Amino acid sequence: MICRFWTKSEVLMNGTIKISLYRSTRSRLAVAVGDVPGPMVKGCISFGSLVTETDCDDGLPHTLEHLVFLGSKKYPFKGVLDMIASRCLASGTNAWTDQDHTAYTLSTVGSEGFFKVLPVYLNHLLSPMLTKSQFATEVHHINGNGEDAGVVYSEMQDHESEMSCMMDRKKKEVLYPPNNCYRVDTGGRLPSLRTTCNLDKVRGFHRKFYHLSNMMIIVAGKINHERLLNTIEATEEEHLPDVPATFQRPFSINLKPPVESSEHHVLCPSEDESRGMVQISWFGYQPTDFQEEAAFEVLFDYLSYTPVSPLQREFVLIEKPLASYVSFHVTEQTTCLIDLIFSGVPTDRLDDVKKEFMDKVVKEHLEDKTWDLERMGFLVDQSAKNELKKMEKKPATELFKHMISHQLYGSKEDQLKTRVNKLELIRRLRSEPASFWSGLIKKYFVNPHVVIIGVPSEKMVAEVSIAILSASVKVANGEKSRLEIQRKKLGEDGVKQCGEQIEMAMKENTSRKPSTELLDEMIVKKLEAFDRFPVDARCNIEGSIPSQEMAKFLKQFPFPTTVHNCPTKFVELFLLFDSSILTMEHRAYLHLYTELLFESPAIINGKLKSAEDVARVVIFIHFFRVYLQVDAETGFPHLAKWAEIFTTGIVFDIQRIKQCAKKLASEAREKKRDGCSVAGIALASMLYQQSKWFFFKPKFLDSNGHMYNELVLEKFHERVAKMCDAQPKEVIRNIEEVCFLSLSGIL
């Protein structure tokens, strides 16, 4: 029996997973539980989302996200939360800060560990220590060298000069008025973190937003609801005095769309001035217009997904590409924001992108006759299958997303049923005529919009912080001058004092240790009977005894094949190849080869189909390494046939090869702007065995894990693109050899 302090409502997510939503009659705390099958119990915040509205660039939501993990008043020990979590069969804790909420997460095996960690986690969120020493080490301080430092400060340094971040800041400046909650940088800007962000502001922000009436605890997994609510009630009782009598819901503001279109250029530091970025933004639908949201997802796929889409055809897969990648993104807010992003745009064509899009895509699709309704039908079916796949692959993620959105923007409880049943909304689109889709283009894409153009500038590299390498800091002229002024202002004694203060702060933060008794009390000492998925494995090698039906299926494969039979609506096939028989030259073609598998003509049922036709037919098949996925009902009987088509039926077309090689080379230039990608390549270059190969001047690394990367293969892909004009037969012969030899090494 559920306790008397809770009201309860229930909905089914896409007709499969039951969601129970409880609301406390005492504190207005919301608790949502999704009965997700499987051994894992996952929580968000780990228990919900805390709405964080701010009107400055101090980064208060982000700084608070970091500080709550440093200990609470009841558990004043740095790192104790993760120490306890690891004893409760948890993978640790995590969090993220978005523009409109902060979420904290936790995953445990089984529910016993979850029940143990939950009260400790809630205590950290609602009663953090927030001391001066914690603020100094985690947010901002000046170290013994007179330099600005701190975990949050260092983290935001990485974002200060990234092209995408600089463009995003400019977009917000243009779209939103000053002090608007959607305009500010919730992560914190460096000048604000240095000068205006302080501990008093963080404490005030915590009082204002971190209370029970502004919290939702979301749990996904097989868990006892009554025990969960009883566990939460103990914490609720303790913090009832902190709940404000009245609390105005954040993010209830109205947004005004731009009156007229505008273009803005943003100079961004980059050592590669050959490629930039273009972003076009429109205000879209309301966050509770769920049918329109579903329609836009399908519309975006129609315009940008697969080689046959208009944006791929007009911008990417052409002789002189206007972009290496085109994508849409929707930001949920009181009026949703639609972004169309063109990456890898040649610098001399940056100003042409918007006109090309408006003339070749928008203008054409204002006409009903332009729409390919057969392809649109395929995409609607694809979207529906994707929705079902999410219910199997990542139901907890979907539950968190829906419940956080409902907390932020759902004004009525009955809206939740529609929100979580997206599958039904998608299926309704199957019968929509061409006028419906052209109507969406007319309704939104011809409206006033904002264009942000990211222009790479090598000159700017000398004006911003470049990188932190090991213990030495390589800073550019502007930052160097600022630090020199700061050191001079502090004086030698002041700099020394700063170093001593931060050392004392670090010692203070780590001086307290949890007792052995506390840690022993929190450990899960006995494994429970976890909820598990039944899996029955059968193979076609000697000794296995499959059923007659399974034996017939396995007989179709001329190589060792294992089937893992489990309850699912989808079937996945992984083809593993032993590439040790390939030469280094052939292995360099592997990335291009696997990319071409799903962008090339193919022989299907004895007939040559164009790449466009193949894209239409196999709209739900895609690769991960070499990976096919089909729905169980219609695709399973033909799985072997599809495997045959994509391993032996591909016809390699020289123009497709050239387009694909150019695209991969262009993607490499974009990756160079991503510090994690570059760092990963640098690390791999030190870890893996090196070998010499004539295509590359530097030493090439003898590892597929390293070779299968656009950055490593950039020069090679550029060379192949040129060879497509000069030596087309040799290129095709090389790729066909890779195909033949790979089949010889299938495992």
From TrEMBL:
One of its GO terms (molecular function) is metal ion binding. It comes from Angiostrongylus cantonensis (Rat lungworm). PANTHER family: METALLOPROTEASE, PUTATIVE (AFU_ORTHOLOGUE AFUA_4G07610)-RELATED (PTHR43016:SF16), PRESEQUENCE PROTEASE (PTHR43016). Pfam families: Peptidase_M16, Peptidase_M16_C. The lineage of its organism: Eukaryota, Metazoa, Ecdysozoa, Nematoda, Chromadorea. InterPro entries: Metalloenz_LuxS/M16, Pept_M16_N, Peptidase_M16_C. Residues 197-363 form the Peptidase M16 C-terminal domain. This is Peptidase_M16 domain-containing protein. Residues 44-142 form the Peptidase M16 N-terminal domain. It comes from the Eukaryota.
